[in-house]
Amino acid sequence: MFIKILILIILSLSAFSKEIKDVDFTGDIDLVLGDFSKSNLEKVCNISYPPIYKFWQKNPTFTQYDILICNESLIEYAQSLGFYEANISYEISEEKATLSIQKNKQIKISSIDIEDEYKNIIGLKIDDFFNASDFTNSKKNIHKYLNEQGYPKAQLDAKAYVDIDEYKVDIVYKVEKNNLQYFGKVDIENNANVDTEFLQKEIEFKKGDKYNSTLIDKTYENLYNFGIYKYIAIEQNIDTQDDIIPINIKLIEGEYRETTYGIGYDTDTKARFKAQYKNDNFLGNLKKFTIGTKVNQDGFNIYNNLNNPYFLFDGLSLNNDISYEDMDYKSYSQKKIEEKLSFSKDFFGLSHTVGFLAEHSTIESNLKEYQSGSYLLNSLFYEVILDRRDDILNPKNGYYLSFYVENGTKALASEIDYIKTLSEIRLIKSFDKLTTSMKTKVGTLDKDLPIFKHFFAGGDYSNRGYSYQKVGLLDPDDNPYGGLSMIDNSIEFEYNVYKDLGIATFFDSTMLSLQSHNFNEKFYHSYGVGARYYTPIGPLRVDFGFPLDDGGFVFHIGIGQVF
Questions:
Q1: How many CB atoms lie within 10 A of CB 349?
Q2: Confidence bin at 315 (pLDDT 50/70/90)
Q3: What's the Cα-to-Cα distance from 377 to each of 240, 337, 346, 355, 557, rounded to whole Å?
Q4: For the residues 196-205, what does the mean pLDDT come to?
Q5: Is the per-residue pLDDT at 5 higher than 70?
Q6: Which domain holds residue 112?
């Protein structure tokens, strides 16, 4: 008897240990994107193939037991998405396993029992399809709302009752707020060369204020942006018996000096290289020192920046930028030394910057109408910015307004008196997965200046139906003149297809005039389509632009948001 049982065990183990080299999915499978795409199903089953460039690595193999576990995992995954009647099975033929998926009907939410105060924040509605992830997020939304309203000690009891017989889900939320809470004493532990008074300026709350978790998050962000701490902890003691929550901030200094190198590519400047040294606490109290170089196919730039964020009095920052460039542009080559000294302060909800700009340029013009030579231009400038975008790297809602004026004057030893202005407006609005973005730039020069001071348009961040700086009048050798007056418009519709992937369509329109304050010249129109892949440093953009007048198309690739 014992021998028979042993034989059965051995046979069973041999069946489960049979090598399977290929796993496939059939049935209700999404083609490329979606919850039931092949790539997602492989993740659920913990199947990972080596990337193409690692050609020396072998593909994984599987046993029948692995396929059985995969089948069970897919059943749980389908149920988490609301497909409680899904039929999932597998079949093994020789060295291949095939998993068959029939999703069938997705369960719906039949009722939601919740107080009116929270109805609009849970993100769920009656007759919506139910899935576990949305239900979990609804609870997070309620907790977030309560924390923002001053109730960090609130208790939430949320349950989803799944009735398989009637195939429905009933959801019940019960909230007990408890007492309103207030910030208590704030203690700071800091080992960096930064005076406490500078840290206190970045704390968004004070003792006695009503508790709000958003202020905690903003404080963390402010301290993180210093760039000098490897550890930031904002500890909140919510276990107190009274309605006061003491705060303890712990800061541990990290490596604030760094040397970085990077390579990149876009269709405007092609391949590029960057090397930079940065000290984020130069001589203490958060002064920043940066020196670096940028190199591309057109030349190089060497730059240096000194920033003092707390200069003289609260909120006033000092920037001193010195740079040298040796570049070949479309219409001219330039060797330029530039110094830009500026002071910035925020007030009335606006960011204001005023400063002095000195430029000494030696140019070789490719346009016979503009002479080569050396020019010294010194000016005062002022810039005001109102930025109400929800995210600088990848905004989905908000607006951005800016105005810049530069006044060159012989009183500052400038060779030419002139006034240059540039105004810009951006509007971004999202409707579910569709984001609409609009942008307009208007530039003016009050007189004809050397070619390097002209406005140019066309390229990855401008009119995408044209190559870099190729909008407007060109000479016989295809060199652009730019303009003394400019209007540069863009409108774009972007649809989020799936998670980090979006598609876009756009229309761009640009006018450049070689006369001052003249906005009646021809507009250059283009349209196009593109794709967006969202990364932590901004969207990776691929665009195809089609000029209405010239025919053909222009291809653009770059990273960073246009709007």
A1: 8
A2: confident
A3: 64, 11, 28, 14, 34
A4: 93
A5: no
A6: 108-176
Helix (H, G, I), strand (E, B) or coil at 417: coil
State residue 7's pLDDT score.
Answer: 43
Do residues 170 and 188 share a domain? Answer: no
Q: How many domains does the chain have?
A: 4
Contact 208, 180 (CB under 8 A): no
**Are 148 and 197 part of one and the same domain?**
no
Percent of the chain having pLDDT more than 70? 97
HSE on the CB side for 95, CA within 13 Å? Answer: 5
Does residue 298 belong to any structural domain of this protein? no
Could you give the 3-state DSSP secondary structure of residue 55? coil
Residues contacting residue 301 through CB under 8 Å, at least 6 positions apart: 293, 294, 295, 323, 324, 325, 326, 327
Q: Which of 157, 176, 195 is the last residue of a domain?
A: 176
Residue 148 sits at the vertex; the CA angle it makes with 144 and 151, to the nearest 5 degrees, is 90
Whether 374 is covered by a domain: the verdict is: yes
> Could you give the angle at the alpha carbon of 385 between the alpha carbons of 338 and 514, nearest 5°?
60
We report the CATH number of the domain holding residue 75 as: 3.10.20
CATH of the domain at 454: 2.40.160.50
pLDDT at 154: 95
Residue 316 lies in a domain: no
CA gap 71, 73 in Å, rounded: 5
Residue 8, pLDDT > 50, answer no
479 and 403 in a single domain? The answer is yes
Instruction: Show Cβ contacts of residue 38 under 8 Å, excluding neighbours closer than 6 positions.
Output: 25, 29
User: Given this model, what pLDDT does residue 1 score?
Assistant: 52
pLDDT at 441 over 60: yes
Residue 168 lies in a domain: yes
pLDDT for residue 326: 96
Instruction: Give me 155's structure tokens.
Output: 């208790």
Q: Are residues 436 and 540 in the same domain?
A: yes
Contacts of 448 (CB under 8 A, 6+ apart): 484, 514, 516
Euclidean distance between CA atoms 436 and 492, whole angstroms: 6
CATH of residue 127: 3.10.20.310
